[in-house]
# Entry
Amino acid sequence: MNNDQQHDEQLWKIAKERVAFKWSFASYIIVNCFLVGIWYFTSNQYKHFWPIWPILGWGIGIAFHYVRAYHGNSILSIEKEYNKLKNK
# Structure
């Protein structure tokens, strides 16, 4: 496998990860809006805002997915660490 094919495979992998994040984020927004709607229409005026728990819990996972999709290659790069050690 030549270098261009390997580079294209890496770009394809990054593109797939970013699309997967976008679908996950859209699901997060839709489901949590639905949960807030259920809370709004079924609670009295001063009831506990229970949708905060799935919003926060799932939000942590979404945040990690975002970092992996958009910054994972630069944060956890083997090449970056190799170059640091090489330049010491």
